[in-house]
Design goal:
With about 800 residues, the protein is mainly beta. It has a single domain, classed as Maltoporin, Chain A (Beta Barrel). It has a 22-stranded antiparallel beta barrel. Strands 3-9-10-7-8 form a five-stranded mixed β-sheet. A three-stranded antiparallel β-sheet has the order 4-5-6, with no helix packed on it. β35 and β36 (about 640-655) form a beta hairpin. One of its GO terms (cellular component) is cell outer membrane. It is found in: Cell outer membrane. Belongs to the TonB-dependent receptor family. Keywords: Cell outer membrane, Ion transport, Iron, Iron transport, Membrane, Receptor, Signal, TonB box, Transmembrane, Transmembrane beta strand, Transport.
Amino acid sequence: MIARLLGSASAAAIFLTLASAAAAQDVPPEQQDDDRDAGFSGEIIVTAQRREESLQDTALAVTALGGDRLQNQQVTTLQDLQVAVPAVTFGNDFNMAKVFIRGVGANTSTTGSSTGVALHVDGVYVARAEAQLTSLFDLERVEVLRGPQGTLYGRNAVGGSINLITAKPTDYFSGYVRGTYGNYNRFIGEAAIGGPITEGIRFRVAGMSQQGDGFGVNPVTGQDVDDMNRWMGRAHLEFDLGSTGELLLTGEYFRQNDSAGAVHYLAPSFPGVPRLAPLGVGGYAIEPRDLASEIQPGTDTESYAFTGRLSFDLNDSLSIANIASYRDFYSKLYQDLDLSGVQNGFTVNGRPSTVQRRTIDAEQFSNELQLTYTSDLIEGVLGGYYFTEEQHPNDTLGLGRETGVPTNTAILARDGVPLDRAYFLCGFQPDGTTGGSALQTPKRVCTRSNLDTEAWAIFGQATFDVGQLVPALDGFSVRLGGRFSHERVESENPGVVIRYAAGAPNNALPTLVATEEGTHAERTFEDFSPEFGLQYRPNPDLLLYYTYSEGFKAGSGENAFASTTIVDPEYISNHEAGIKYTFMDGRLNASLTGYTYDLEGLQLNKTIAGGPTGYTTVFDNAADSSASGIEFELFGSPFDGFRFSSAVSYTDASFGDYVTIDPFRPANVAGGTPYNAVTNPDPTAFGAPCDSPEDLPTTQTCEINLAGNALRNTPEWSVNTHLEYDLPFELGDGGVLTAQTDFSYRSRIYFTEFEREIESSAPYALVDGALRYESGDGDFTASVWVRNLFDVDRKSSTFALATGRLIGATYLPPRTFGVTAGYEF
């Protein structure tokens, strides 16, 4: 910890030195004015429709949070956004972000599949759900677009889009240094500096470090779980290309090595069923936030990205921009799937090993060309988009982070599997990875997937001011848009599975082998997603609009042993009507939105216990689902010194005629004593049994219909309220003391489609608070703050761990508090 603090202090000292040098530069006086009411009243500029416009002029449901608001509310991760934005929920498992908007989101936990809510950083799509777990830092604002964004954003934006807009270089020197220290020994250091290098060239460099102890411990290893160890940085270099052109080059880096996002033991999947007892009985942690494990769970991630944006104004009405980006993402995830200190292994206790190692090596490249036209009659965007991604996830089960079962070599030799081939499938090299020259033996289960996507699209959207042509229709506009998408998806899932059985040669049945050729699958998807909108502005303060839009998410493969599955696409059709009203001379802004949608082919993932690997992955399309809802937002500054925002969202989202199998029905588990409704009527624990013995004539599956059940991660009610009040007195230097509080509420959230209470989060309310000081010149700020004031304990997700035959859970953070101080220049 001392070394950590010294390193953070050194970084802060460097930035302070830079800050002192930059402070000596001439800064325009207007840049020193810090209007605390800005962002809550007056005109708020967003780029949700790929052009700059006022938030209250944007005919869609969008919430914008400025950089100051994010900082003051201690929003540093995507999960933090759910306390500030309506109709958004966030969870994570298997190191994957689970973002949902209006009932649409990421419904899988196998890498390779796509999310339903798109994440964009400065207009660039971030494909991997694992790569979306980076922290938020040095942002100008965050825009959350609710509802399908099929026309302008395209790929996998069936539920909406979260757009991160980073702070850009300025033509004067500016920056900040900021530090936060809180309970759990958590330290966050952040700094940025930018300005002119020479005439026509500007820069900005920003970085953040997040360090801290865990919310729980692993009693086996004595190390923390749910801790933080993250480093990240971003650099912008901007060039003026004459009077009408600009080139912005950006590089980003992210590094994480901690035990964050740990899945904790919650309950057995089959209580009362002896043949399906969990594999970790006797080794579970006592406290919910602790996690007993024979290995230390953790995530080791490294990611970097390069982006170039070239733009020119061709004339007063026409501009062109090209955004090219490359991202490389590599991550290792370690966890013991029995969530227990019990060491399982056929050579140890005759049970399958449960230690999982998942690595992801993904590269993506995208290029988007935009042509923007603006006139009194038409505002429009026309563009082309290209995207390609290669993924190589590798899943293994063994006895430790980097070790396998000693007898594997003999088994593989017996079954004619080349040792170097087994090493490759397990993600290792046969030339000495541990112990000097000692060879590392392969694991029990190894799957090494090749998942490739290539996509292109042509899109356009235009808003026509009808009043320019027909004066009697002054204030009316029509919006037309569409996107044609073409995607080609390929998948391969080669691997080896060593099956153990007492009495067999080397205590193993013949090894299962899957090859690239034998698992190769590919599909091509095409779709046209139209959009039509009407909007009417009877006066400058009132906007009424209606939009019909469609969205499309292509089918995808998954990383599962021997799988040849590429699921069908998702299609969504959405109707939305809204009212936006500004009153009290611009001090208050209100919006009311109603929507209804139908989603066809919802892609869902689950795992079933049993089979040669100990688990079977099911990735398929549900029947239709639908939702309707209403959202109300009110924000502003009704009088000087008081600012607020409040949002209420109601969502009614449910499945149509969805027939599937339940992972918690013993009848659906292969292996062991076969289920028989008469002679072996296992207790069903969480659900009703098969209706009658004839429901199970020849196979061990029992299907049920989930029509009417709620969609995953979708509370019926959500409420967010933010209040700020400048206390009515000045400190000696003209400084201001501001009291701030935040309240958020969510009704019950079901994490699976089965509507089981154990796989849900009970209704909860979170309260945050802060007292913030700002100096008279606005340069220095300090605050004391608390989040989750009443230490509400709620799950953020659950997952049925089929290998361990149990239910795991992740949790929202407990009560945290601390102090933050910063200097701006």
